[in-house]
Amino acid sequence: MFTNEAALEERLATPTPALITDLTHLEGDLLILGAGGKMGPSLCRLARRALDTAGRPDITVYAVSRWSDPAAAQQLEAAGISTVAFDLMDPAADLASLPDAGNIVFMVGAKFGSAGAPSHAWAVNAAMPDRVARRWPHARIAAFSTGNVYPLVPASSGGCTENDPVGPVGEYAMSCLGRERIFAHAALTHGTKIANIRLNYAVDLRYGVLADIAHRVQAGEPVDITTGHANVVWQGYANQVALRSLLHATDNEPFTLNLTGPETASVRRLAHWFGEQFGKDPLITGEEAPTALLSDASRCHALFGYPDVTLRTLVEWQADWLRRGLPLSGKPTKFQVRDGRF
Fold first, then answer.
1. Separation of alpha carbons 18 and 240, rounded Å
2. In the chain, which end has fewer C-beta atoms inside a 10 angstrom radius, N or C?
3. Closest Cα partner for 160 from 171, 146, 178, 172?
């Protein structure tokens, strides 16, 4: 359990022995693009701590973001991370001014508001990767993608595997597939080593599918179960896998990985679990649709092991977080959306 955000950040920044071992093999510095988002700061701290523990203080971790919150940048600097204030979407910005690096984690993305501004989603999610790949053609790039590139599938299917056909629904999902295709083109034409990571959905206690459901149950608000199933995964595990994926990045044909937990979680059951935690009956509305956005991450688990925090533990942590009145990000996942309009 966590008594404050600092304790949560400490847990998120604790590397596993496997991550420490893998990062001993990195060649070149580590550049994290889009480091100011929900997952970026914890990934930066995790990388720095793992590298220091591995005896690799020679590798610099650069965190690139607009840093509209100067305090966030200052906290990372205090943790030994070099922050770089840079607006990647500024047409006058010159990527050549950013540091050279042998390893890049690409975390830039536009999701919410994409239905009303689809051109912006394409500019961020598809055009930006081309600029990045041209700037660092010889780097290893682990690029966050999304399970939204898949179609909705039956809950009984176990989810889409990396070998299943994609079928993005909506402008956001299509632009994310565009990001994958652009990076794949760089792998094919320039020999850039690419890992495309299809994540859904990370849980951090301040945000995520579990926070969305738990908050409604605690507040006595109805939980709509029309989208009746979802995948979730502990953010600490997701960040560890992203960093370890750098060593699996390949040219010609990019390494593609579904990243999520092993369960097809029932939204109805999660609501009842939270009801037990809060001592109240959840208000359920709707009926489960036969399909949902689901991914099979068995390849990920075979390569990197199962997530180190179980679903039931995440539920208990999430409930305790809310009982303590600790903060939420105020950014719902909108996992219930079925038409791709975010």
1. 9
2. N
3. 146
Of residues 308, 130, 157, 137, the one with CA closest to residue 235: 308
The average pLDDT across 172-195 equals 97
In a domain, 334, yes or no: no
**What CATH number is associated with residue 132?**
3.40.50.720
Predicted local distance difference test score (pLDDT) of residue 1: 87
Residues 191 and 194: their CA atoms lie apart, in Å, by: 9
State pLDDT tens for residues 32-79. 999 999 999 999 999 999 999 999 999 999 999 999 999 999 999 999
| CB-based contacts of 5, cutoff 8 Å, min separation 6 | 206, 326, 327
CB 82 within 8 A of CB 139: no
Assessment of whether the complete model's pTM goes beyond 0.90: yes
Which pair of structure tokens corresponds to residue 274?
């939270």
**DSSP result, 159-187:** -B-TTSPP---HHHHHHHHHHHHHHHHHH
Q: Token digits for 26?
A: 């990195």
Q: Give the residue numbers spanning the domain of 37.
A: 5-323
Return the number of other C-beta atoms located less than 10 Å from residue 117's C-beta.
Answer: 12
The bridge status of strand 255-259 relative to strand 193-199 is parallel
pLDDT band for position 115 (cuts 50, 70, 90): confident
Q: Which residues contact 269 (CB under 8 A, 6 or more apart)?
A: none
